[in-house]
Every structure is written in C-alpha cells, then in structure tokens.
Amino acid sequence: MLDGPNHISISPLLRRLVKHSPVGDDEIAAASALIAEDGLSNAQTSLFLGLLKMQGYELKDSEHKLLEFKVDDIHGPTNDMKHSSIGGLLRQILAKGHIEADTIAAAIALIFENRLSTTQCALLLGLLAYTGLDRDPLVLAKTAAKMRKAATQVDREALCKAIRLQNRAIGLYQGGLCDITGTGGDGHSTFNVSTTASIVASSTLLLSKHGNRASSSTSGSADLLKSIQPRSPRVEAITALTLPSIYEASAYAFLFAPVFHPGMRHVTSIRNDLGIRTIFNVLGPLVNPVEGDIEARIIGVAERSMGAVFAEVLRLSDVKKAMVVCGAENLDEISCAGKTNCWHLFEHEATIKVEHFELEPSDFGLPAHPLSKVAGKKLPQENAKILVDLLQNKLSNDDPVLHFVLMNTAALFAISGACEDSPGGSKGLAADQVVAERGPGGQRWKEGVRKARWAIESGGALRSLDKYIEVTYGERENNS
User: Fold this and answer.
1) CA distances from residue 203 to 345, 351, 390, 418, 471 in whole angstroms, order as listed
2) pTM above the 0.90 mark?
3) What's the rounded Cα separation, in Å, for the pair 384 and 386?
4) Is the pLDDT at 426 greater than 70, yes or no?
5) Mind listing the pLDDT tens digit for each residue in 37-93?
C-alpha cells in the first residue's frame, strides 16, 4: 500500500535493481525526480536510495542526507517511540561489511513485534535481497527459528499426547507429524498438488499442512480448501489452542499461516508497497508452528540453486527426515514432465547426511505429462472440484493430475518411512501386491504410488478430508 493517494509505484524498477539487472540512467533520473516531488512512498524512497548507494551511484547531497535520515528513522505513522533502531545494522549492510546471522535474525524478529519503522523495515528487507543474505543458510535457519518463536505457541504436551493416541506408526514411520509444502513463486500456476497430496497422505500419515492464501499463483492452499463443495472447512478454526484436540479426531490439520503468525500483519503493507521478493517469500516452508514435532517433510523450491540452500538450512535445524525438491522447469514440486532434482536428508550413524539425486516419472512407474496438462491458471473453485473428483476416484487412471498427485504423495510416503512396511501392510493388500523395488536414493517410490492409489480407491483419503472438515465445525461424535 502506498503512503499517499498521489504516490507512484516504482516496483518494477526496484525488482530489477534488487536482481542486479541493467537499469537505464533515464529510469534512475525519473525516479529521483519523483523523490524530489514527494511522489514516492517512504518505503520505496528508502529502498531506492539504498540500492543506488549499494550499486555505487553518486547520490546528490539532498539524496544522501535523505538516505541518512531514513537509515536512522524510527518513527511510525504516529511517531510511536516503541520502535527500535537498526541504523547500525543498515549502515553495515550499505558498507558491505560482515554481519552475523544472529544480528540479522534479531532485526527481523523486531518486525513481528511491530518495533521497526516503515523505512528501516523496507531497507532491511530490500538490502538483504540485494546482497543475497536472505539466501544464506545460517541466516534462514536463525530467522526461521525467531519467526517460529514469535508464532502463537501450541501446547506441546497436549499435542504429543494426541499424536501418541493416533498410533499411526507403520514401517519406519514413527507416527509423527508430516508436511509437504513449497516456496511458491515458480510462475507455473499448476494444480494445487502439495495440498492435495497432503490430504491423500493423511490416510496413513499424520499431516500438519502449513499454508496460506495465494501470493504469486491463482490458487493458494487456503483458497483451495475454502472452495471445497458442498461444504468447505473453516480454516481459521484451527488455532494453537484447538490443534491438540483436532488431532484427537482427525489425522489432517491445515495450519493457516495468518492464524499462527499474527506478527506478519505488521509487514504486509510494506511488502505490498515494495513489490519485490523478500526473505518472507522463502521462509514459509521453514516456519511450521509445530516444527519440533514434524517427523518428515517434503519442501519444494522454485530455483535449483535454492535446493542445496534449503537442505543446509534443514541440516542446521537438526531435521533428520526430509527431502527438498525442484523440478527441472524450476517447479517447486516433483515434476510430472521430466526430471526433478532432489536433496534427501536422513540420519546415518548419528549424523545428518544429504544425498542429491534425480527423479523422473518412470521411477514412480508412471508416464510423463507436460506441465500444460496440470496447469492453466485455474481458479480455486475449479481446482477444488478437481480435488473432490480425485478423492472420489472419479478421475481416469491415466489422468495427468492424478499422476502428478500420486508422485508427490508417494514421495512423502517414501521419505516418512511408511513404504518400509512389512509385506501386506495394514491396507488390506496381499503380500505379493507390495512393490519392493527400490529406485534413486534407495527409496521405494513405486510402493509409495501403490499406497497413494489405495488411499484414493479405498476412500481413505476422502474420509480423512471429511473428518477434517467436520472437526473444524466442532463435529466429532461421528469420528472413530
């Protein structure tokens, strides 16, 4: 949101400056003229001048003085003096000095308490993006920890009790919570595969799906769930207070980010105003409010270069069972179109190892499909209908969306350890139906597909969704 009705946005210019892309002198001059005319918002003015300084542009005396003022500005719209100053940190960044990850994380944490001014917040987020510090594994790990600490806290004792009572252990899966999510921002606008896969997987695993509304796509996870017919879940009903009791009746819970991270409201307008990708665009998969109780997870990233970064973040965070994925098309899911880069984290001899390998549809025993068959920028209502049809087993066996979901669900099953179940398992299948074959990374991907198909064909996935919807309305007497 711009500060005033007459302010003009230079977000496209800021995005190019942050990415170190070429910018014409005429564009710089035009933006400088807007500042002289008070034609830019405080946030955009601050970041524009900061980026010019970082790139070595010669600032006018008036611009230099204005930037100095913005760096030290701790005033809010009402001159609220509760704001803290990070002027020293901002000067360090502008001077390209060494900065400790703990210092950056502590500064970001001030945002959640509404203790940073608009100008200092804008500078911090923009300069971290420009310098690449917001992609440093240690910075991400430390900042994610601060964000989880600022979240509304769940009663861990009650939650652990509910998890134990679910008694979901199977194979090497110990019955803990699981998540499958992505950073978003891949630009493909594919079907909501991770949300759908999380529901299918909850027929066997305990799911704690952390998600939000759409940011860069047309249909976010919350948008999808809210569009389910004939009755959609009340996603806001699951809170830190109600979560343990939710798991007493349901194997699935959607943790709506705004409910658990209320401090993020203090930065929403600044992010919208700047119009650039910031550290908050990648933190989502790392800040599940029940992090300490998550046993296994799949995280999708939209850039191959971020795969190793996220794997290192998870390793630094002592995560023992996870896989980071990036489709060859820079897709933040396991791709149904071709190869997917994978970084598998697992514990070996008391050490967390990271193994990199590639997966493709044939490893799951499935054919490849172009992304155009699972995309199309559909509205949430359209994707919700596909979701329900899939769970009701109405899609054809060769449907590309079905295969897309099967692959991603299978990956979560495999990484969780559920595919290491004893022959026959608990799903009513004969021993000779279990797929023992192992693929890349030594995992039983095809067995994961078998389990995912069974979850759909047996109605287990649909029943799991129905139970989740019921408990969001406080209806539990019909659950067993």
Assistant:
1) 24, 31, 14, 12, 16
2) yes
3) 5
4) no
5) 999 999 999 999 999 999 999 999 999 999 999 999 887 655 554 578 999 999 999
150 φ/ψ angles, rounded to the nearest 5 degrees: -80, -10
Selection from 387, 464, 428, 397 nearest residue 203 by Cα: 464
Instruction: Report phi then psi at 170, rounded to 5.
Output: -155, 130
Phi, psi at 306, each rounded to 5°: -85, -10
What are 180's strand-pairing partners? 298
Residue 350 has pLDDT above 50, yes or no: yes
Reading the block at residue 419, the tokens are 């595919």
**What's the token pair of residue 106?**
């502590």
Kindly state the DSSP code that residue 207 receives in the 8-state scheme.
E
| Beta carbons of 147 and 68 less than 8 angstroms apart | no
* Both tokens assigned to 425: 């398992």
Q: Say yes or no to pLDDT of 177 above 70.
A: yes
Residue-wise burial string across 349-361, b where 16 or more C-beta atoms lie within 10 A, e elsewhere: eeebebeebebbb
